[in-house]
Design brief:
With 397 residues, this protein is α/β, with parallel strands linked by helices. It has 14 helices and 14 strands. It is 41% helix and 20% strand. Helix 2 links the parallel strand 1 and strand 2. The longest helix has 20 residues.
């Protein structure tokens, strides 16, 4: 097993031949390292750090060291504003890889990064509100919009045989938005929503809300983060003894789940999450070196975080200098056709092609990262069920 990427970086090792170890190209990384999705975000960080390490091992960025400056937003919009403002104004970062949470991305973009003319490349923010931002082509993301996931959830529920469902969502931007998408999609294909309930994160308990949802329908669509009451709400639902099935998003996934719930509970739970197609050659290439580095290639948004950090490095190299104003155009140039296909980890190859005046097309670990006019990608989703001590994933066509 190789040393972890974090330890390599902490030791100050810089292996790029001919690169100036004292010069840095700094990119801000506002991640939710604590708070309701901290466990997931810390795994995403490992993916981004792996991309940073590879760039540095292959000669660095613009003959300098590629440095991601991490800041903790705790998935809180207010903290995101403060963190990003410090990154841009004090650390003078060139661009942003992150944030993780939709509310944090929306608030900081509107208040800080867009006015400052700094590109945001989010790794896990899925709210459809991001698509509609008036952002001067400064906000991109490697995670698919919740329009895709919400519609997929509705189809999974309907194909499972569910015709009536109760919805409960936390009041944050992401969970509110995807619940609305799910409700509209479920009703459009012939389903009936019998209850639309909102609940506050981080309550002491959810017995009352869980009982109301279970009284309304045997099948529940739950939209909540595991670390801000989601697991407590799910537990309350199961304890009613009246719930046949719960369908939820990847924000609910946590290592704590297998300790908290019994096999009969998991039999009633389906989670739909953004996912990378494991059959793609680019994913297999990524998974091989991710496994070797101790990074979980299939973890929620881990591949998306890797892609964001690696793609940002490609864009900066393509821009030719540390000019914030050139990043958006360069991102579009290196992320889609035409161009020579670049796989995850192939930074030296990409740089050589760029120096020869050739175009490149990055084929990401999470999928083809081809941005549309709004800075969104198409993306894929998977259906996940827990059995025999582990999660089992099936890509949704």
């Amino acid at each position: 097993m190789l040393k972890s990427i974090s330890l390599v970086l902490a030791a100050g090792l810089f292996l790029g031949c001919g690169a100036n170890a004292n010069a840095q190209i700094r990119v801000g990384a506002p991640f939710a390292l604590t708070g309701p999705v901290g466990e997931l975000a810390r795994e995403m960080r490992k993916g981004a750090e792996l991309a940073m390490a590879q760039v540095n091992e292959q000669g660095g960025l613009l003959a300098s060291r590629y440095q991601l400056l991490f800041a903790d937003t705790a998935c809180d919009p207010g903290r995101a504003v403060s963190a990003v403002r410090a990154l841009i104004e004090e650390s003078e970062v060139l661009a942003l890889v992150g944030p993780v949470c939709s509310g944090a991305t929306l608030r900081q973009a509107q208040s800080v990064s867009i006015p400052a003319g700094v590109v945001t490349l989010s790794v896990a923010s899925a709210s459809s509100l991001i698509t509609r931002l008036n952002d001067n082509d400064l906000v991109f993301r490697t995670a698919p919009s919740d329009d895709l996931k919400g519609e997929a959830m509705a189809r999974v529920a309907y194909e499972t045989g569910i015709r009536e469902i109760a919805i409960s969502h936390a009041t944050d931007a992401y969970n509110t938005g995807i619940a609305a998408v799910f409700a509209a999609a479920f009703e459009a294909i012939g389903g009936r929503v019998v209850l639309r309930q909102s609940h506050q994160p981080n309550q002491g308990g959810y017995q009352r809300e869980g009982q109301a949802a279970a009284n309304a329908a045997a099948n529940i669509a739950l939209f909540a983060y595991y670390g801000s009451g989601g697991l407590e709400y799910l537990d309350a639902l199961f304890k009613t003894g009246r719930v046949a099935h719960v369908i939820a998003t990847d924000g609910l996934m946590s290592k704590e789940m297998d300790k908290k719930f019994a096999a009969e509970d998991f039999a009633r739970l389906t989670i739909v999450k953004a996912a990378a197609d494991h059959d793609r050659s680019a994913y297999k290439h990524w998974a091989q070196f991710a496994d070797a580095a101790g990074v979980k290639p299939a973890g929620p948004y881990v591949a998306n975080a890797y892609d964001a950090a690696f793609l940002m490095a490609l864009a900066i190299e393509a821009a030719g200098n540390a000019d914030r104003a050139k990043i958006a155009k360069a991102l579009r140039a290196v992320s889609g056709p035409p161009g020579v296909r670049i796989l995850p980890g192939e930074f030296a190859k990409a740089r050589a092609l760029l120096q020869q005046g050739q175009e490149i097309d990055y084929d990401g670990a999470s999928g083809p990262v081809d941005f549309d006019a709004a800075g969104d990608i198409a993306g894929r989703v998977s259906v996940n069920r827990f059995a025999d001590g582990s999660w089992h994933e099936k890509m949704l066509d």
